[in-house]
Design a protein that fits this description.
Elements lengths: L4 E6 H15 L4 E5 L1 H5 L3 H10 L4 E6 H11 L4 E7 L2 H9 L3 E4 L2 H14 L3 E6 L11 H13 L4 E7 L11 H20 L6 E3 L3 H6 L7 E4 L10 H8 L14 E6 L2 E5 L17 E6 L16 E4 L2 E6 L7 E4 L11 E8 L2 E3 L1 H8 L3 H6 L7 E4 L1
Parallel strand pairs: 1-18, 2-3, 2-9, 3-4, 4-5, 5-6, 6-7, 7-8
Antiparallel strand pairs: 1-10, 10-16, 11-12, 12-15, 13-14, 13-16, 14-15, 16-17
Helix pairs in contact: 3-4, 5-6
The structure holds pyridoxal-5'-phosphate.
EC number: 5.1.1.1
Pfam family, one: Ala_racemase_C
Catalytic activity: L-alanine = D-alanine
């Protein structure tokens, strides 16, 4: 089975992005490649071997299930860190396999200690500190208890890191909030250090933090979106790249392309409606190409009558409503469109390109959302 559309990952684009990120953060900061959300839709089993090949050594996931998939994909070559959910039943697997994980509540800390003692293997923990995001992380009122638990269990725990997460480093509007978080983080770490609890590393920055708050890079940055060739926000891109000259090019390159093929072509007479309902009326005779990709495949219904695709080197419009499994393109101006012609939904064809963000602007989705909604069952492969 080949599926009705397919995704290609560009090795050279990923290589370019890895090199840019390395130059950005310098030689002494570890880059943890954030691969939650099925590697931002790129596909864990396809992206991970590529990332490894290009030198990635540290990976972050949201949950233990993803960590399991990454563990299988990298076969022991590199560190894995779970930033979010680990069920109590999954802790044993994580500790046994040297999977690092955030701890942000005492219960998880106590469970980790109990299981580590049972297994006689140290749990590798990152103590997450609350600094202002108010999502997860130990608050000041819990520090004493956490310190006591760590001090009492040196055989069960290895404190790999202290960490925190910024509440929106990609937007200037949050500048003071993030700066305050940075200061609180440093203060809180000092409190732990004073009690004799040191960590191997400190980390706080996501992509936007790494770009906009260089001091907050510490020993490791958790880079998600930028490794795939996207900026966390337009604002971050403009601030970083454009001051050097308005015609400066984007140093990042999109890794993902999403393509399909024309399934059917037909002529529609003037005055006829196209597709469900009455959202598109043929004002003159038109030629319509059907593409077997719909909202059920991650092509948002809000792209009805507004989306674009590339066919035979031309930009063409989505007409009518996007169906569950199909969309219709107006290919009237194109000569000889045929069944089987390549249709680019994201990516390049000839001199033209459709970016994820142009797509996102139309459908009011963030890059992050659009990418991670790409279904897992679309076949993915690596190209040069
Ligand atoms: C998703 C996530 C990141 C990566 O964010 P990007 O903006 O994609 O770089 C870093 N840290 C945590 C805790 C995250 O959840």
């Amino acid at each position: 089975m080949r599926g009705t559309s397919y995704i290609e990952l560009s090795r050279s684009a990923a290589e370019n992005n890895f090199a840019y990120l390395r130059e950005l953060v310098g030689a002494n900061t570890t880059i943890s490649h954030v691969v939650k959300g099925n590697a931002y839709g790129h596909g864990i089993s396809t992206y991970l071997p590529l990332a490894l090949e290009l030198g990635a050594k540290h990976f972050s996931t949201f949950d233990a299930q993803e960590a399991f998939l990454v563990h299988r994909a990298i076969e022991g070559q590199g560190n894995i860190m779970v930033m979010g959910m680990v069920e109590d039943e999954e802790l044993e697997w994580a500790i046994e396999h040297g999977i690092e994980f955030f701890v942000f509540d005492q219960q998880r800390l106590e469970n980790a200690i109990r299981i580590a003692k049972k297994l006689k293997v140290k749990a590798l923990i990152h103590v997450e500190l609350e600094t202002g995001m108010n999502r997860t992380g130990f608050g000041k009122d819990e520090f004493d208890q956490v310190i006591r638990l760590i001090q009492a269990n040196p055989d069960a725990l290895l404190v790999k890191g202290f960490c925190t997460h910024y509440a929106g480093a990609e937007s200037f509007a949050n500048f003071f909030r993030v700066k305050t978080q940075y200061q609180r983080f440093k203060k809180s770490v000092k409190l732990f250090n004073k009690s004799g609890i040191e960590s191997e590393i400190l980390h706080a920055a996501c992509s936007a933090g790494a770009v906009r708050f260089p001091k907050s890079r510490f020993d490791l940055v958790r880079i998600g979106i930028m490794q795939y060739g996207f900026w966390p926000s337009t604002e971050t891109y403009i601030e970083k790249i454009k001051p050097k000259g308005m015609d400066n090019e984007d140093p990042l390159r999109r890794v993902i392309s999403w393509k399909s093929r024309v399934m059917n072509v037909k002529t529609v007479k003037q005055g006829e409606y196209v597709g469900y309902g009455m959202s598109y009326l043929a004002a003159s005779e038109i030629k319509v190409a059907t593409v077997p990709v719909g909202y059920g495949h991650g092509f948002s219904r809000s792209l009805s009558n507004t989306g674009r695709a590339l066919v035979r080197g031309n930009r063409v419009s989505v007409i009518g409503t996007v169906n569950m499994n199909l969309m219709l393109l107006d290919v009237t101006p194109l000569d000889n469109v045929e069944k089987g012609d390549e249709v680019v939904l994201i990516g390049n064809q000839g001199d033209l390109s459709i970016s994820v963000s142009s797509f996102g602007d139309f459908s009011d989705q963030l890059n992050y959302e659009l990418l991670t909604r790409l279904p897992r069952d679309i076949p993915r492969s690596v190209i040069d």
